[in-house]
Design brief:
The structure is a single chain. Helices cover 66% and strands 2% of the residues. The chain has a two-stranded antiparallel ribbon. Helix 2 packs antiparallel against helix 4 and helix 5 crosses helix 14.
Length: 402
């Protein structure tokens, strides 16, 4: 007779982990999912570490510890991981498009499916912040504070727009060599910083800069990056070029924007940001085998799979989690690491203590809004993965992606 006693929480969790592992096709390249999860989590932690909302008596204004502590620039090196996300995005999109063509699926249907997954969670964020901004203004909040909050909450949207544009252009990019957009970035920076061209010209790099890792992802699909030599070349070449640009060409050491700085490496991307991204992509390629081995562990794989299933929800709501914590904390007064000026190590230590709180609030956002991302998947909703295989040469068959 079966034991009626319910399984303990630990036993139920391990059983769920085992189910996720068993449901994963053996041929799936789990390193791709691991890289995507690391890229998303890197951006989230980076924002939480370098974004401060300072209470000044009349409202909140944005600040950054990198402004008063520029020696913290290496934090941005570790957590500005967008290049890896575009690398994986280019790889997944080009394989997915090849698979769709092999199945006889039209470009329009393929693109609609991809963009709907990308933008489905956006509506909830826009709705909540439209209502929140209106209520704050109606209840007397000062406009600069509301502007700061809305800008931080919606700042991740620029990334989605660029990523969507590159996704739409995937059929044209499958054979584009990464050197071409890199040359564009080089010439734009030369015109801006060397020949006095207008600053608006830099926004050409918003497309060209992120095209570099995206087309590297397409090269990965074609099998051109399978050898470790390619990874080492990107890592060493990108690192050397970035170091030279920072040391001798006057580029900022921080790979994210710093309030008050005359030049931002990220808005729009500079040559230094792109060469730094090349180094990151090289490191990502070199880590593929280690990640594949690590993902054989069911617990590690389950965590990565769950992050991938809610990647856009996590990305879109992480700034809201930070701001919700900050606003709620004002009830108790100006709290260190939350409302104080980020100008010393005491702030850094306090901010590290707040990270688990941000994560807990983000988990609440995830529980509330994850259905917006997963709605419409139908039977595929319960599937943790869809096949993408680590092949030496690209083929059209058997490559399905979320």
């Amino acid at each position: 007779m079966a034991d009626p006693t319910p399984a303990p929480p630990r036993g139920a969790l391990l059983a769920a982990v085992a189910r996720i592992d068993a449901a994963t096709p053996k041929e799936r390249d789990r390193a791709v999912d691991a890289l995507r999860a690391l890229a998303i989590l890197g951006v989230v932690l980076g924002h939480w570490l370098v974004t401060a909302l300072v209470a000044d008596g009349t409202g909140l204004h944005a600040a950054s510890p990198l402004q008063d502590m520029p020696w913290l620039a290496p934090v941005s090196w570790a957590f500005q991981t967008l290049a890896v996300f575009f690398l994986v995005g280019g790889h997944v999109a080009t394989r997915g498009y090849a698979s769709a063509r092999a199945r006889g699926e039209t470009y329009g249907r393929w693109l609609t499916a991809r963009l709907s997954r990308l933008f489905r969670p956006v509506l909830a964020v826009l709705t909540l912040w439209t209502v929140t901004a209106a209520l704050l203004l109606l209840t007397g909040a000062d406009y600069p504070t509301v502007h700061t909050l809305v800008k931080l909450a919606l700042s991740p949207m620029w990334f989605l727009l660029v990523f969507a544009a590159l996704t739409a252009a995937t059929p044209l990019l499958t054979r584009l060599h990464p050197l071409w957009p890199l040359v564009v970035v080089l010439h734009v920076d030369l015109l801006r910083f060397g020949l006095g061209a207008p600053s608006w010209l830099g926004w050409v790099n918003l497309a060209a800069g992120w095209l570099v890792p995206y087309t590297l992802g397409a090269a990965w699909t074609r099998g051109e990056l399978d050898r470790r030599r390619a990874g080492w070349l990107l890592l060493t070449g990108g690192t050397a070029a970035t170091a030279a640009l920072v040391a001798w060409a006057g580029y900022p050491a921080s790979m994210v924007g710093v309030p008050g700085a005359s030049v931002s490496n990220l808005n729009p991307p500079t040559l230094a940001a792109v060469t730094f991204g090349l180094a990151q992509c090289g490191l990502a390629l070199l880590l593929r085998e280690r990640l594949r081995r690590a993902m054989r562990r069911p617990v590690a794989w389950a965590a990565v799979a769950l992050v991938n299933l809610s990647a856009m929800t996590i990305f879109l709501w992480h700034q809201t989690a930070l701001m919700a914590t900050t606003a709620t904390g004002l009830v108790a007064g100006r709290l260190p690491g939350l409302h104080t000026l980020p100008d010393g190590l005491d702030w850094v230590a306090a901010r590290l203590v707040w990270l688990p709180v941000f994560a807990l609030v983000l988990a609440g956002c995830w529980a509330t809004f994850r259905s917006c991302e997963q709605r419409g998947r139908g039977r595929r909703r319960t599937r943790v993965v869809h096949t993408h295989r680590p092949q030496r040469r690209a083929t059209g068959a058997g490559a399905r992606h979320v």
